[in-house]
Amino acid sequence: MTEKNATSIKRLAKLVKNPNAKVIFMVGAGISTSCGIPDFRSPGTGLYDNLAKLNLPFAEAVFDIDFFEKNPEPFYTLAKELYPGNYEPSNFHYLMRLFQDKGKLHRVYTQNIDTLERAAGILPDNLVEAHGSFAKNHCIKCHKVFVQEIFEQAINEDKEFLKCVHCNGLIKPQIVFFGENLPSLFFSSWDDDCAKLGEDHIVIVAGTSLAVYPFASLPTEVPKITNRSLINLQRVGDFKNNPRKSDVIYLGSSDHAAEQLAAELGWLDDLKILTNMTTIKLQEDENRETCFTHEDKDLKLDKVADVLEKLKLDEREPEEKAGSEKGEKEKELEVQKERD
Ligand code: CNA
């Protein structure tokens, strides 16, 4: 780790350790590249560099509503690849989940459509999917809404492009295309959150080129008393054009930053438990490649087993739980009596 990054992690950890600290994450495709999902703009590996095989007039056409109307095939090809369930969350996704578990998460704003925040366990109330997701579909002509499964079926069974039963318009997942509005929740949630931002809040922007508006303007709107941090391969957006003295900048992989920040906060074991659970799940399916390549191969399986056991215990009926807790209390009292 460079000296600058090490200092940034220490500064960030100090801010998070403030007992009143609450974090808003603003994330993009860069936090999912380690899961095997290419971002848009990384030279050579980004989607836009690799869309040639789809025969597009211009790369962005794959998410262009007018183009989709004429030729839905490239989007279907891409959707099949990006469809939820094909990939597992990264270290960074699980770090955000840890912030939630530790009571330090205010909100996650994501531009991603891969739904890996949900897969990592971020609760719906804590999540704003600014560019929509595959969770619902709608007809682009009459706007009738359809359930997730119909699109899933269409791409799994290589069916013809889905058409609306009411008006014969094309059906597509509620992913925001260029030329479409963002979900109203994005605006209402940000209005509320932005008004509440104070000196105990930290806004962590990660894995995004901050090139797509209106999302890209969010960091600019963060009040000056609130701390901002950027975790990205390079400086972007407001952190490049209008940097603030207090900005905490980490230039490098978001997964490395996640591990280093977790270590500095004393959360590394918790992070490994979450990522190892995924590793175990992946190992069950021998044909799948795991996206986790932890240097620490010493899987803390005993620790994972402990956690699973605890989860099982917590699922017991309340009476059963109270009964065994009472038993334990009685045992403790007996031991105490014997000692006395
Ligand atoms: P982008 O424009 O491709 O930018 C990605 C940014 O992440 C770049 O600045 C990269 O340098 C940086 N980056 C790449 N890998 C890493 C890494 N390992 N660690 C840290 N930084 C990294 O993507 P944006 O999200 O900014 O653009 C918004 C678009 C991308 C949205 O409309 C998304 O829907 C769309 N998109 C989403 C996905 C996904 O859901 N996973 C994939 C590709 C594109």
TrEMBL record:
<dbReference type="GO" id="GO:0045950">
    <property type="term" value="P:negative regulation of mitotic recombination"/>
</dbReference>
<feature type="active site" description="Proton acceptor">
    <location>
        <position position="131"/>
    </location>
</feature>
<dbReference type="GO" id="GO:0000183">
    <property type="term" value="P:rDNA heterochromatin formation"/>
</dbReference>
<feature type="binding site">
    <location>
        <position position="164"/>
    </location>
    <ligand>
        <name>Zn(2+)</name>
    </ligand>
</feature>
<dbReference type="GO" id="GO:0008270">
    <property type="term" value="F:zinc ion binding"/>
</dbReference>
<dbReference type="GO" id="GO:0099115">
    <property type="term" value="C:chromosome, subtelomeric region"/>
</dbReference>
<keyword id="KW-0520">NAD</keyword>
<dbReference type="GO" id="GO:0031934">
    <property type="term" value="C:mating-type region heterochromatin"/>
</dbReference>
<feature type="binding site">
    <location>
        <position position="142"/>
    </location>
    <ligand>
        <name>Zn(2+)</name>
    </ligand>
</feature>
<feature type="binding site">
    <location>
        <begin position="39"/>
        <end position="41"/>
    </location>
    <ligand>
        <name>NAD(+)</name>
    </ligand>
</feature>
<keyword id="KW-0678">Repressor</keyword>
<comment type="similarity">
    <text>Belongs to the sirtuin family. Class I subfamily.</text>
</comment>
<dbReference type="InterPro" id="IPR026591">
    <property type="entry name" value="Sirtuin_cat_small_dom_sf"/>
</dbReference>
<dbReference type="GO" id="GO:0005634">
    <property type="term" value="C:nucleus"/>
</dbReference>
<keyword id="KW-0479">Metal-binding</keyword>
<dbReference type="GO" id="GO:0031508">
    <property type="term" value="P:pericentric heterochromatin formation"/>
</dbReference>
<feature type="domain" description="Deacetylase sirtuin-type">
    <location>
        <begin position="2"/>
        <end position="268"/>
    </location>
</feature>
<dbReference type="InterPro" id="IPR026590">
    <property type="entry name" value="Ssirtuin_cat_dom"/>
</dbReference>
<dbReference type="GO" id="GO:0005737">
    <property type="term" value="C:cytoplasm"/>
</dbReference>
<dbReference type="GO" id="GO:0005721">
    <property type="term" value="C:pericentric heterochromatin"/>
</dbReference>
<feature type="region of interest" description="Disordered">
    <location>
        <begin position="312"/>
        <end position="340"/>
    </location>
</feature>
<feature type="binding site">
    <location>
        <position position="139"/>
    </location>
    <ligand>
        <name>Zn(2+)</name>
    </ligand>
</feature>
<dbReference type="Pfam" id="PF02146">
    <property type="entry name" value="SIR2"/>
</dbReference>
<feature type="binding site">
    <location>
        <begin position="111"/>
        <end position="114"/>
    </location>
    <ligand>
        <name>NAD(+)</name>
    </ligand>
</feature>
<protein>
    <recommendedName>
        <fullName>NAD-dependent protein deacetylase</fullName>
        <ecNumber>2.3.1.286</ecNumber>
    </recommendedName>
</protein>
<dbReference type="GO" id="GO:0046970">
    <property type="term" value="F:histone H4K16 deacetylase activity, NAD-dependent"/>
</dbReference>
<dbReference type="GO" id="GO:0033553">
    <property type="term" value="C:rDNA heterochromatin"/>
</dbReference>
<keyword id="KW-0808">Transferase</keyword>
<dbReference type="InterPro" id="IPR029035">
    <property type="entry name" value="DHS-like_NAD/FAD-binding_dom"/>
</dbReference>
<keyword id="KW-0862">Zinc</keyword>
<dbReference type="InterPro" id="IPR017328">
    <property type="entry name" value="Sirtuin_class_I"/>
</dbReference>
<feature type="binding site">
    <location>
        <position position="167"/>
    </location>
    <ligand>
        <name>Zn(2+)</name>
    </ligand>
</feature>
<feature type="binding site">
    <location>
        <begin position="208"/>
        <end position="209"/>
    </location>
    <ligand>
        <name>NAD(+)</name>
    </ligand>
</feature>
<dbReference type="GO" id="GO:0070403">
    <property type="term" value="F:NAD+ binding"/>
</dbReference>
<dbReference type="InterPro" id="IPR003000">
    <property type="entry name" value="Sirtuin"/>
</dbReference>
<dbReference type="InterPro" id="IPR050134">
    <property type="entry name" value="NAD-dep_sirtuin_deacylases"/>
</dbReference>
<feature type="binding site">
    <location>
        <begin position="29"/>
        <end position="33"/>
    </location>
    <ligand>
        <name>NAD(+)</name>
    </ligand>
</feature>
